[in-house]
Amino acid sequence: MKKIHITILLLSICLLAVAARQDGRTAALLDSLDFYIEKQNLFDSQKERKIADINLQIAENKNDTLILYSLFLKKFEEYRSYVYDSAYVCAETLLNISNSLKDKDKIISSQTKIGYCYFSSGLFKESFEVLNSLDVSACSDSTKIEYYMYKSIFYYNLADFNNSEKFRKKYISEGNKVINKAIALASAGSASYWNMVGLHRMKSDDIQGAIETYRQMLATPDCSEHDFAVATSSIAYLFGLQGNKQEQKRYLTMAAIADIKSSTKETVALHNLAMLLYKEGDIAHAAAYIHQALADALLFNTRQRQLEAGMILPIIELEHINMIEKQRNTVIWVSVGIALLAILLAAAIFRLWNMMKRLNLAKKSVQETNDQLIEVNKIKEEYIGYFFSQNSEFIEKLSALEKWVIDKVNTMSYNELRNFPKNLNIHREREKMYVRFDQIFLKLFPDFVKEFNKLLKPDQQILLQSGELLNTDLRIYALMRLGIHENEKIAAFLDYSINTIYAYKSKIKSKSRYPNDELKRRLMEIK
After folding, report:
1. Could you read off the pLDDT of 360-376 as tens digits, one per residue?
2. What CA–CA distance (Å, rounded) separates 455 from 344?
């Protein structure tokens, strides 16, 4: 029995050591991700220089159609996961050049790229019309592979966005049939080959098989930085299905770093990592990463990615502000404690001064004998020594406490709290949050104010003050447009009571041209 207990103890220690080592690796990766986020402009500049070089070559070869086709093909690949609008323009240009060359293979390849651009931005109907109209039977293997790969991804994306299990299974089945055709034509052992095999296994619920396949993809010599991001992001998703949050977080972090290094803006890794960290309570990292994910989505410029990041941003941002407020309250109590200690120190010094006075009087009164004088002197010396010892220790504790407060503030990167409280203003932070919310929301719905006023009676229009982007009435219905209908959440975000939110809604209902249900329906139709 004793041996069993010892074995269990040793096993527990080993498991704790492994967990600590994994936590350390993940923390180091997050630090590395923070570093790359700060340096991402360098990678984007490299991307822009590549594109500028291609543009220069285009200008130099504008009369050679074949060279132009190859140059715009390179330009499309640079923009494909970087800026959606520019990638689409390149695809359209490739189609025009292909038509002028009357090259059917190139025409179908260009149309395939246009279909890819459509479903990348959430235009599934348009993408289906393009991809389903193409006949690749007479095309080259490379064009067939491209077509089958993009069409399978189209079906997989359609399955992900469909809430019906029946249709979801149907779309996955269609995607698997199509990707099998691409796999049959692909060069076995290449990064592209393993990517397609891994995607097929993942969609077929072969989780462990898919993980091993993507790891083989990572080991291939032709695995690019973008391929690395795709593989690690997929592995993270698979670990998430298994409930292995530690490995999911680690691989998501690696994917986000690879996305930055390859200037990939059409990405979900950073967004998913922010969500995972938010659920774990790491609000500071979650807020920073969701802001960066939104910035990437705005640069890539597709509505789908912008909405994904924009809908979660207010929730994480509110939690971030609450965290700052808690930290502020902690600092307040620590500061109060320091002040009380300072008062106690002053009182102790004053008391000592009074005692010193009494001691001096006692010294004069006992000068009749040397023994009494020696005794008084001894008492005085011991008392003074004790006082300075106690006060020295007290001051050291006070100094250590002061350093602790400053260290805590520094480690949380809120240097302005050193001058607390004049530099800490939660109201101002909330106002900044509202301005950021208004800016992001109006980026997503630029005509919201005009369209919302159309829902109100002509003499009840909402007029904004100078400098306002949204007011409280509009902000409530902006949150509702994002899908946040619960009065409790709206009240928490706007720092109002639930009754106040009811009052604002009632006021708008009285101004509306439509009944309440119709007003809500038309609100959700605002684009």
Report:
1. 776 776 665 565 444 43
2. 64
